[in-house]
Design goal:
The chain has 94 residues and is mainly α. The chain contains 1 helix and 4 strands, in the order E-E-E-E-H. A hairpin with a 6-residue loop joins strand 3 and strand 4.
């Protein structure tokens, strides 16, 4: 088998195998060059295109933890503002 291009297709199939066909483009072969880029899940290795790098089964925990961190940050911000406002009101009244 002669090799046409200098690249191999990096596309991950749903089974987790790499396409591996020879191609001219570094993006992939004639079938997969426009396909969404996929990376293996950080927990199980299943191919995923999610921004967090986790598959559908595992990304729930990632987004839930981000949500709780945002809530915690808002609560801390609110508490610090409340303390500052309370201190200024106390100083102004005296």
């Amino acid at each position: 088998m002669t090799r046409i291009g200098g690249y191999t297709c990096p596309f991950y199939h749903n089974s987790g195998e790499v396409c591996g066909d020879s191609c001219i483009r570094p993006e992939g072969c004639h079938i997969h060059w426009k396909a969404k880029r996929r990376i293996p899940c950080t927990d199980c290795g299943k191919p995923t295109g999610a921004a967090c790098g986790r598959c559908d089964l595992h990304k729930r925990g990632f987004y839930v933890s981000q949500y709780y961190q945002r809530l915690r940050k808002k609560a801390e911000c609110f508490q610090s503002r409340y303390k500052l406002n309370y201190q200024y009101q106390f100083v102004i009244k005296c």
